Amino acid sequence: MLWLKSLAYAIVSVNISGRRLLPVSMRLLIITVPTIVFLWTCALTCLAQFNDTTHYYTNFTSTGAINRTQDGSSYLLNNAFRFSEKKKSIALNFNNNWVYGRSNDDLTNNDFSTSLDFNLYKSIPHFYYWGLVNYVTSYSLKINNQFLGGVGGAYNLIDKKNIMLNLSDGVLYDRGDLFIADDIRDNYHTFRNSFRLLYRFVIKDIVTLDGSNFVQNSFSRRNDYIIRSTTNLSVRIRKWLSFTTSLNYNRMNRTHSENTLLNYGLTIEKYF
Fold first, then answer.
1. Which sign does the torsion angle of CA 56, 131, 218, 173 carry?
2. Which of 60, 89, 166, 204 minimizes the number of CB atoms within 10 Å of its CB?
3. Torsion angles phi and psi, residue 239, rounded to 5
4. Is the dihedral of CA 212, 171, 119, 136 positive or negative?
5. pLDDT tens by residue, the chain, 272 residues
6. How many CB atoms lie under 10 A from the CB of residue 194?
7. Sign of CA dihedral 114, 247, 74, 34
8. Could you give the CA distance from residue 58 to residue 39 in angstroms, rounded to a whole number?
9. How far apart are the C-alpha atoms of 167 and 156, rounded to whole Å?
10. How far apart are CA 224 and CA 24, in angstroms?
11. How far apart are CA 134 and CA 175, in angstroms?
């Protein structure tokens, strides 16, 4: 396809790392299946955005960089896939993200997350209920396995075509297996409060600034919290193609680990 031939990428990244990776076979399966789904959906010809008869959206971002000097080399790849279905009373979202990087043959990132969430719209204006299941494994954050699941409510403070501001709060059950040190594992479970700030600003259908910020505190331990922050700035090149700059920050305070990524690349999206 013509759009596939046009896909080029560039990335500038800053990253603070930890440990842990997925088996190669699982990584290939995780990346291959969403890619097949994405290519299949992009074969559809309808280009309309969400309306009475169009309820699907797919988004794929692939970025990467290689930095080579006389002292060594490094590279980092970042792949993200999203598929959404929206109806009048419910919306479903399926998200996958994989970050992989090396510096001088040392692993710096092998971070994967997948989530499935729903929004349930009832009679209260601007308010909806949400539910979420999320799986995370992260080398840089020292997470071997982590499962999060829960429910809550959200309210749109501003809900216009070009401006959206949303607050959300709920309760999550968190069960995880962490690396505290090379020979020390932390198997735990806890309930967390999950607070989120979500926003989007669109300028003349060309420039989009959007982001999400999460703070997830444990009810049982004050110093056990998770912070996740993502800010994206996109400039539309074609109806289906945008140049995107993303700043991501993640902290897992239980392992005293964090990472920061500044990415530049291309985003392909499709409404149908």
1. negative
2. 204
3. -60, -30
4. positive
5. 433 333 333 333 444 444 444 444 444 445 544 554 454 444 443 334 555 555 899 999 988 777 787 778 888 889 999 999 998 889 999 999 999 999 988 999 999 999 999 999 987 889 999 999 999 999 999 999 999 999 999 999 999 989 999 999 999 999 999 998 878 899 999 999 999 999 999 999 999 999 999 999 999 999 999 999 999 999 999 999 999 988 999 999 999 999 998 888 999 999 88
6. 21
7. positive
8. 10
9. 7
10. 31
11. 11
Q: How far apart (Å, rounded) are the C-alpha atoms in residues 101 and 74?
A: 7
CATH code of domain 2-271: 2.40.160.40
- Enumerate the domain spans of the chain: 2-271
Nearest to 214 by CA among 270, 159, 110, 132: 132
- The partner residues of 159 in beta bridges, in order of sequence, read 164
Give the dihedral sign, CA 19/136/245/63.
Answer: positive
Length of the chain: 272
Tokens at residue 124, please? 């209260």
Q: Could you give the 3-state DSSP secondary structure of residue 77? A: strand
Structure token pair of residue 60: 């794929």
Sequence-distant (6+) residues with CB within 8 A of 267 are 59, 60, 61, 234, 241, 242, 243, 244
The answer to whether 177 and 146 are in contact (CB under 8 A) is: yes
Cα(116)–Cα(96) distance, integer angstroms: 9
Q: Which of 3, 4, 9, 20 is nearest to 259 (CA)?
A: 20
Find where tokens 């291309």 sit. Answer: 266
